[in-house]
TrEMBL record:
Lineage, highest ranks first: Eukaryota, Metazoa, Chordata, Craniata, Vertebrata
PANTHER family with a match to the protein in the record: PALMITOYLTRANSFERASE ZDHHC21, ZINC FINGER DHHC DOMAIN CONTAINING PROTEIN
GO MF entries: protein-cysteine S-palmitoyltransferase activity
Name recorded for this polypeptide: Palmitoyltransferase
Annotated Pfam families: DHHC (PF01529)
Recorded GO CC terms: endoplasmic reticulum; Golgi apparatus; membrane
Annotated compartments: Membrane
Reactions this protein catalyses: L-cysteinyl-[protein] + hexadecanoyl-CoA = S-hexadecanoyl-L-cysteinyl-[protein] + CoA
Species the sequence originates in: Sylvietta virens (Green crombec)
Similarity remark: Belongs to the DHHC palmitoyltransferase family.
Start and end residues of each Palmitoyltransferase DHHC domain: 89-216
Keywords attached to this entry: Acyltransferase, Membrane, Transferase, Transmembrane, Transmembrane helix
Length: 265
């Protein structure tokens, strides 16, 4: 089942996403130019280190764009409700449309989203049932790329051997220290923020609760069966193959979830 393109008209979201793309472009251009390529040419690092950096960068930007344009689980205007599942639907008091339980109305997007976790301005989209897996991949690869960048910044000054020849680009050579300080500063800020967000997302999947449900304290039903973590992760990523949880270049196939496991909100 292919994902539909979902585009949110929100200037604030465009600015936030533009800032993320700027940071990604900055590190993808200057880190190889200042550190990776010069040290590779002089034999201080291997080709594997260069390729790993570009792979992390590619997976990071791919998950960002896919999470941004993927349909998070927007409900159609006239949904067809199976008679057997009618009791598991409810009426939204904001848009007056029927929706499955655990769905929420996004005031910024103006519609209901299935199993909505939150609206994220950094991807200019809601995080819902159909793109939650991409958002998790974005958080994961952003942490990997930020950590890798910080390690390279540190090793460039305190571990790698000094370069024997000057960089051919005089602008980069003259402003090398400033460029790497900016890179390290952005890496620390992003790594700190994303790590905290990624941790809360993992806890939410382990406990089978969304961020909205946590804030509204709607998940205190102790009679609700607790699912194994493998099942909750498989439902989010749409596959039981764990290796596919890390690949953003695929289509998610939703797994059928029994309603007796659902957290009725």
């Amino acid at each position: 089942m292919g994902q539909q393109i979902h585009f949110v008209v929100d200037p604030q979201g465009w600015c936030c996403m533009g800032l993320i793309i700027f940071v990604w472009l900055y590190n993808t251009i200057f880190i190889p130019k200042v550190i990776l390529f010069p040290h590779y040419e002089e034999g201080n690092i291997s080709l594997v280190a260069v390729l790993c950096y570009y792979f992390c960068s590619l997976f990071c930007i791919a998950s960002l764009f896919r999470a941004s344009v993927a349909d998070p689980g927007k409900l159609p205007e006239n949904p067809k409700i199976p008679i057997a599942e009618l009791e598991h639907w409810e009426l939204c008091n904001k848009c007056n449309m029927m929706r499955p339980k655990r769905s929420h109305h996004c005031s910024r997007c103006g519609h209901c989203v299935r199993r909505m976790d939150h609206h994220c301005p950094w991807i200019n989209n809601c995080v819902g049932e159909d793109n939650h897996w991409l958002f998790l991949q974005l958080c994961f690869y952003t942490q990997i790329l930020s950590s890798y960048t910080l390690i390279l910044d540190f090793c460039h000054y305190y571990y790698f051997l000094p370069l024997k020849k000057e960089n051919w680009d005089m602008f980069v050579f003259r402003h090398e220290l400033a460029l790497l300080r900016i890179s390290a500063f952005m890496g620390l800020i992003i790594l700190g923020g994303i790590s905290r967000l990624f941790y809360t997302q993992l806890i939410g999947i382990f406990t089978d609760t969304t961020s909205i449900e946590k804030m509204s304290n709607c998940c205190e039903d102790i009679s609700r069966p607790r699912k194994p973590w493998q099942q909750t992760f498989s439902e989010v990523f749409g596959t039981h193959w764990k290796i596919l949880w890390f690949i953003p270049f695929r289509q998610r196939q939703p797994l059928r979830v029994p309603y007796h496991f659902a957290n009725h909100v």
